[in-house]
Amino acid sequence: MANPFTGKTSSAGQRVKEIIEAAKLADEAGLDIFGVGEHHRLDYAISSPPVVLASIAQITKRIKLTSATTVLSTVDPVRLFEDFATLDLLSDGRAEIIAGRGAFVESFPLFGYDTNDYDALFSENIELFLKLNKNERMTWEGRFRSPLRNAEIAPRPLQKELPIWIGVGGTPSSAVRAGKLGVGMALAILGGDPERFKPLVDLYRQTGIEAGHGVEELKVGVTGHGYLSETTQQAKDEFYPYYSNYWPTVNRQRGMVSGRISYSEFEQLTAPDTALFVGSPQQIVEKILRQYELFGHQRFMAQLDIGGVPFEKVAKSIELLATEVAPIVRKATV
């Protein structure tokens, strides 16, 4: 997106280089995981997460590398498995996948799929992917892709299986699916009162246990928009122009029209009891731990670069998240 102060937009090349540098900073600072999304539009820089993550793998040492999110409905599960198994080998066992149906639908016509098959494609592809994850050879037949006849599925990842999570935006059916399959559930909580998501977490765990999965398999992650600065007021003042830049642009990309939010509306969105992670390190700690009381989740991921936030401000947020937030949260949630 264009910087709201300068009106200038980064090139795709600059954007990709900054994302790779952000991953390097996160790794050096001691954070646990770094993810990149998948979009097939000229106003986003990354359409191929495994390619970008493979580049990141070469300059990082320990941080886990995930898609966030893979649009599973419009990718061949075999190709996806091969790409991430290769990433796992290149990264010495650090690859993961968050699979979802995506917020945009341009990948459907681009790759020859029908949006009427939106859910059926996802269901078939996630079930096939999980089988590929467990078997070196596969015989399989479905509705949307050619059959597999004693096919060799190569390469195999370094990990026994690639960790896979299902991205959930708020629908009970998605939580039920993740629970039945026994995979992780990654909740996108972008604002409002996080307590409204507790029924989804409860439903996910209940469904998973009823399906025969152990509690330890049923991992919950939370993803939220975030921005950190030395004080909460400073963080709000600095982030407001970018956040108010973000939503009208995203809504326009999705065919909707919305105006810019006022500062008073923004202050309500960033209140202590909300899920928008904007504030001082202490404020962010308190928000994460409040959600931990609700969900007992295993992972928190912050998206720190929305609305045209300059790289130097992203880097500062990464530093504060790693040095002043993560140690306190880790100690409090052991």
Q: Can you describe this structure?
A:
With 334 residues, this protein is α/β, with parallel strands linked by helices. The chain has one domain (12-332): Luciferase-like domain (TIM Barrel), CATH 3.20.20.30. 45% of the residues lie in helices and 16% in strands. It is built from eleven helices and eleven strands. The protein has helices spanning 12-29, 49-57, 77-90, 107-110, 118-134, 172-181, 198-210, 232-253, 263-269, 281-295, 311-332, and strands at residues 33-36, 64-67, 70-71, 95-100, 137-140, 148-152, 164-168, 184-188, 220-228, 277-279, 299-303. α2 (49-57) links the parallel β1 and β2 (64-67). α10 crosses α11. The two termini are 38 Å apart.
Put the structure in a nutshell.
The chain is an alpha/beta fold and 334 residues long.
